Amino acid sequence: MIETAVVDLPEKLARGQRLLGIDPGSKTLGLAISDSALKIASPLDTIRRAKFAQDAAHLAEICSERRVGGLVIGLPVNMDGSEGPRCQSVRQFARNLSEKAGFHMAIAFWDERLSTAAVQRFLIDEADMTRKRRSEVVDKMAAAYILQGALDAIASHAANSDRPAQNDGIS
User: Fold this and answer.
1) Which InterPro entries did the record assign (predicted)?
2) Residues 11-22 pLDDT 10s
C-alpha cells in the first residue's frame, strides 16, 4: 500500500488527476470526488457494500472513469484520538484495495471524527431534509466533508510552503 500524508497527495498525482474520498461504513461506502485543481469536493455516490471483490471492482470502475489518482479514506478515530477496531478494519480495507485489488495509487487517511454528525446537523438545520432523504445522501455527503477537509489541508500546506521567509527584524 502506498500510504502517504494528505499534504503529499498532490505530488503523487499526474496532471489532471483527482482524488476520491471514501467514507467506509459497515453497510455502505460513501463516495466523493475532487475537481482536478484539488479545491472542491463533491458528493458522488453511495455504494451498498457487498463482497469485497464487488466493492473493489465498482471503485476501480469509478477511478478509471473519473481519472482518480489517489484516495482519501475516512478513519474513524475514537474521540480520545486512539484507534480502535473500526480503524483497524478501515486500514485493512485500504490494504486489501492495494494488495488484493491492485489499486496502485496513493492512499491517505483523514480523521473523520464527527463528520457524519456534522453532515446530519447541516441536513436537518440548513437543508430541512426528511429522515428518509437524509438516509439516502448522508454517506456521500460525509465523504465530501472528509475529502473537503483533506483538500483544505492541502491548500493550507501549499499556501504556507509558498510563503517567503519572514524577516523578523534581527540582523
Assistant:
1) RNaseH-like_sf (IPR012337), YqgF (IPR005227), YqgF/RNaseH-like_dom (IPR006641), YqgF/RNaseH-like_dom_sf (IPR037027)
2) 999 999 999 999
